[in-house]
Amino acid sequence: MTNHDFSRFSVPSAEPLQIAVVGSGYVGLVAAVCFAEMGHEVICVDNDQRKVDALKGGDTLIHELHLPELLNRYRNTRVRFMTDLAEATRECQAIFIAVGTPQSETGDADLSYVEAVACEIARTLTSYKVIVEKSTVPVYTNEWIRRVIERNGVHRELFDVVSNPEFLREGTAVADFLHPDRIVVGSDTPRAAALLAEIYAPLTSGTYYQKPDHIRGACSTAAPPPLLDTSTKSAEIIKHASNAFLALKISFINAVANLCEAADANVEQVARGMGLDRRIGARFLRPGIGYGGSCFPKDVAAFRSVAEQMGVDFTLLCEVEKINVGQKKRFLSKVRSALWTLRGKRLAVLGLSFKGETDDIRESPAIEMVKMLLAEGCSISAFDPAAMDRARQVLPPAANLAYEESAYDAARDADALLILTDWQEFATLDLALLHKSLRYAIVIDGRNLYDPQVMVQHGFTYLSVGRPAATPVRDFVSIS
Ligand code: UGA
After folding, report:
1. What is the DSSP track for 350-376?
2. How far, in Å, is the centroid of ligand 1 from the Cα of 344?
């Protein structure tokens, strides 16, 4: 760990700092409005004019708690949206790069957007700036950005490159930004570290939490978040290693769930017993149909690829991926074990997004399950509270696929109901109404949202993950 002296930033500066954020996706847009909420002046740059126009008009483009409220509070005042990166570079002291780093065919992160932004910044640099990478990137990216800017003729004294990874979860991104477990700043010079410390001072000093209308969360004036001062390379690895470790935790509990099924044990009891050990912790031990989203699958693959390129044996990550893929196949077998044959079966599907409380369907295990079930010849009635518009774009309605207005509409006359996403509203369904709607009272729950005993009391045959199948007496019995 580096030892920069941040004591003079224990109180935020009176003047707002000028910050540019490049990219207005989940990370960039949330960072932009949250920096404004912390008192800074922000320019959010995106090369997509339609997005810029929509944001100027108050459309957040994504489904995220608190985002509409903050966007309305700051748009066109403390947060300006534009396509002109040169102007933003000239006006700002720090430029955060938050553009996409999609997965290439080999599993590597594709860094061409980051490179393009670095080149464009280089063309306008005439006074000292700190360039901050906030996108999730492999360990050597910081050096490449530095090299690219120097190659474009900028003197080394005119800029520093810092790594400041984010740990936001979709659905709770705004609260995660303003109430982080930690703020990681990877920098190799004291002046760059100092500017980042100043930017985050409203949080680390606790003054933000004194604002009467501040967004609530775990941090407070008495318990502000810590700022971790590291080298750039350590910061880059912290991000990848954190996501890979969380994915590993999920695959681990999924493998344990499979063992529980084989042994007739209950994975919820096992996870609770493990999680109470503070060294393990209870979070990210929820079994299911595997992890998805725009981060874990991509980041595990990228981290594995980085290790491979550096000659480090990290095949553990291949196992994490293998278990994750296997989890969906197991769920399909479970559906088959409950229904015998699949061709021609009519299934109700609850949930299409990759997790609850978001409309994001990128790498969604639910979407993959729907595709697998359609390929098996099932017909599906699906419902999701927020992700149906996006789902229609990848899986258009067809004779064998309908999108319904509610869980109960989806359930009508279905041979079984499948729960594929952990939306809060799916955990509180009217079970009597559900029972009446279904043709056969069979629920196959890929997210363990219900207590098996409660389901049996309501007359359901209930199959979940890592728990014994629950069946009302003299009713249907599953055969594996
Ligand atoms: C994840 C990380 O949690 C964030 O810290 C990180 O900043 C973010 O990736 C990123 O790199 O941008 P996110 O993808 O929004 O956040 O979603 P998570 O809540 O982590 O869930 C990821 C997947 O794991 C979901 O499919 C979820 O259903 C699954 N999951 C999660 C489980 O199956 N079990 C669990 O116990 C937890």
Report:
1. E--SSSTT----TT-HHHHHHHHHHHT
2. 34
- Whether 217 shows a pLDDT value over 90: the answer reads yes
How many helices (H) and strands (E) in the chain?
17, 14
Write down which residue in 263, 298, 322 finishes a domain. Answer: 322
- Residues assigned a catalytic role: 295
Closest residue to atom 13 of ligand 1, CA basis: 169
Query: Nearest-CA neighbor of 39 among 68, 70, 63, 66?
Result: 70
pLDDT category at 411 given cuts 50, 70, 90 is very high
Report pLDDT digits (tens) over 280-311: 999 999 999 999 999 999 999 999 999 999 99
Q: Determine the 3-state secondary structure of 238 from DSSP.
A: helix
Number of the ligand 1 atom closest to the C-alpha atom of 354: 26
Name the token pair of 308.
């491979």
Decide: 64 in ligand 1 pocket, CB within 6 A: no
Whether 419 has a pLDDT exceeding 80, the answer reads yes
Kindly report the pTM of this predicted structure: 0.94
Question: Which of 101, 169, 179, 303 best tests ligand 1's pocket when mutated (most atoms within 8 Å of CB)?
Answer: 169
- Tell me: do 46 and 165 sit in the same domain: yes
472 in any annotated domain: no
**370 lies in which domain range?**
337-463
**Ligand 1 atom nearest 242 alpha carbon:** 5
480 has pLDDT over 50: no
Q: Is the pLDDT of residue 258 over 70?
A: yes
**How many angstroms is it from 324 CA to the middle of ligand 1?**
13
